[in-house]
């Protein structure tokens, strides 16, 4: 247990001044503008928004600058800030099927209706240092249907899972008449195990990307295998609508960019239902493909109980995963170890001295006997 | 901004709650446009607007949060994805050129208070039957067109990455 300490005001003030000076870097160089961070470090901004659980690219950019690029520090800043704001309410569920995808790929079907669209991706880059021409893609105006702006409104991009669902080859995403009661909200009630899938998804959505990546990876390597296929990955902007109580209708608030991953996993069936694919779902703010994919793997592995699978691996253990997934909590507990523990340590020091003295006394007595 | 001329205040409770159903779609359309417009454009438009009614703040502008919801597997039960910042404002417009007092409301993503205030002002102008056509023609339509053009460019760029993969089958099998 750490103890309160007093004093050190001058040293602390100087330490913070030194931090600010170091963070400024070479004063001969221009300061990085907030808008430059939001524009040029978009993937980082997405991560801070997702794990900070707050969509606001401007705030996330500000947090990244203040945190000198420390992602967890930036996430903590965002989380602290949100506690200062009143909650107006809940939005209507975003319609990710309706989003005009910037990116949409499927590893399950080559020729899906609407086509595979790479969008802005690091895939197929050579991972070699290069000076990219930033002029954007070359667009041939006569490149046929789909190339021009006019082609997109009518363009249908059905979900891959719906194509499978139509043939009942995958579990349905909803059962008519199913319970659509108010989902759990971790920001209001702490999680109680076992959790609902909705509660788990909220926790996974704000979970640390690295932690979910490692867990997802572990399921692929056999620790709770899920046999996944990336059914569909989409990146695009969805409209957010809010039912304002004083207006009585859904007000469009604007758009948020999201990344969605629908993972198709191996079959489940029993004497009553034929074998069919199962689902794992991932959704993240901004461009967060690794996060969304990892999340969908872990979502599926945590459904082990639902499908009567044996829970043998960490990624299938709900309490283990959810309790350790939040990086603000994790870093708080790990990093608190550097705070003063002087009293505790003195107690332990006294104990180990006494144990050693007793040991010496015993060995002396035994030797002389 | 014209200072208050009347001590009368409207609380959220006294805001008009009934919008006729056929008008809802039209109002959603302009609220969407105003929410996605840039503050600079709205500001310039309002500065140049004449004649201007007096504007009285009823609520805000104030920043807050909404919890963004999504559906499990895209189409299933609802879950809470994470929050987003939202700024809202309500203003009362009165005097020339309005036929009667009008209340404008706005909700926009982000924490830009000025954006919310301006969006609420234009929503109020649009509530006035005498002003609506002018605002739709001079503000909403150009914003919509600019937005559509930007979306068109984004879509075209995205469609330029449409890919046609060939499966390479193994030979001698």
UniProtKB/TrEMBL annotation, chain A:
<feature type="region of interest" description="Disordered">
    <location>
        <begin position="131"/>
        <end position="157"/>
    </location>
</feature>
<dbReference type="GO" id="GO:0019634">
    <property type="term" value="P:organic phosphonate metabolic process"/>
</dbReference>
<keyword id="KW-0456">Lyase</keyword>
<dbReference type="GO" id="GO:0016829">
    <property type="term" value="F:lyase activity"/>
</dbReference>
<feature type="compositionally biased region" description="Low complexity">
    <location>
        <begin position="136"/>
        <end position="154"/>
    </location>
</feature>
<dbReference type="Pfam" id="PF05861">
    <property type="entry name" value="PhnI"/>
</dbReference>
<protein>
    <submittedName>
        <fullName>Carbon-phosphorus lyase complex subunit PhnI</fullName>
    </submittedName>
</protein>
<dbReference type="InterPro" id="IPR008773">
    <property type="entry name" value="PhnI"/>
</dbReference>
């Amino acid at each position: 247990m750490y103890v309160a300490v007093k004093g050190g005001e001058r040293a602390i003030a100087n330490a913070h001044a030194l931090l600010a000076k170091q963070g400024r870097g070479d004063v001969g160089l221009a300061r990085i503008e907030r808008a430059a961070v939001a524009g040029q470090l978009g993937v980082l901004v997405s991560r801070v928004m997702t794990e900070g659980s707050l969509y606001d690219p401007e705030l996330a950019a500000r947090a990244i600058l203040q945190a000198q690029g420390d992602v967890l520090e930036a996430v903590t800043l965002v989380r602290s800030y949100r506690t200062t704001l009143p909650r107006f309410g809940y939005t209507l569920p975003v319609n990710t099927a309706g989003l005009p995808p910037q990116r949409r790929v499927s590893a399950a079907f080559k020729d899906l209706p609407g086509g595979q669209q790479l969008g802005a991706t690091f895939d197929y880059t050579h991972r070699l240092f290069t000076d990219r021409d930033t002029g954007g893609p070359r667009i041939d105006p006569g490149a046929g249907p789909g190339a021009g702006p006019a082609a997109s409104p009518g363009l249908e991009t059905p979900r891959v899972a719906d194509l499978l669902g139509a043939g009942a080859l995958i579990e349905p995403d909803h059962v008519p008449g199913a319970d659509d009661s108010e989902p759990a909200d971790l920001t209001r009630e702490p999680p109680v195990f076992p959790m609902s899938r909705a509660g788990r998804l909220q926790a996974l959505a704000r979970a640390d990307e690295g932690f979910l990546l490692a867990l997802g990876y572990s399921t692929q390597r056999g620790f709770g295998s899920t046999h996944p296929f990336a059914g569909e990955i989409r990146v695009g902007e969805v409209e957010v609508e809010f039912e304002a109580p004083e207006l009585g209708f859904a007000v469009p608030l604007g758009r948020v960019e999201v990344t969605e991953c629908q993972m198709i996993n191996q079959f489940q069936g029993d004497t009553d239902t034929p074998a069919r694919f199962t689902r794992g779902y991932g959704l993240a703010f901004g461009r967060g493909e690794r996060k969304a994919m990892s999340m969908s793997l872990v979502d599926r592995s945590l459904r082990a109980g639902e499908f009567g699978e044996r829970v043998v691996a960490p990624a299938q253990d709900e309490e283990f995963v959810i309790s350790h997934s939040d990086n603000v909590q994790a870093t708080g507990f790990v990093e608190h170890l550097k705070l003063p523990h002087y009293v505790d340590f003195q107690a332990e020091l006294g104990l180990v001295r006494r144990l050693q003295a007793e040991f010496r006394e015993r060995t002396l007595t035994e030797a002389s006997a | 901004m014209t200072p208050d001329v009347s001590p009368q205040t409207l609380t959220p409770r006294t805001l008009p709650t009934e919008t006729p159903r056929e008008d809802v779609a039209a109002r959603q359309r302009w609220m969407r446009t105003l929410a996605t417009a840039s503050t600079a454009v709205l500001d310039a438009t309002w500065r140049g607007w004449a004649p201007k009614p007096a504007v009285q703040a009823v609520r805000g502008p104030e920043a807050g949060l909404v919890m963004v919801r999504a559906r499990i597997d895209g189409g299933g039960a609802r879950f809470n994805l994470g929050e987003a910042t939202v700024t809202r404002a309500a203003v009362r417009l009165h005097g020339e050129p309005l036929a009667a007092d009008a209340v404008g409301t706005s909700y926009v993503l982000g924490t830009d208070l000025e954006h919310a205030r301006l969006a609420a002002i234009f929503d109020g102008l649009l509530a006035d039957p005498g002003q609506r056509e002018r605002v739709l023609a001079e503000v909403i339509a150009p914003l919509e067109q600019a937005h559509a053009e930007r979306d068109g460019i984004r879509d075209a760029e995205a469609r330029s990455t449409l890919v046609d993969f060939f499966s390479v089958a193994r030979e001698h099998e």
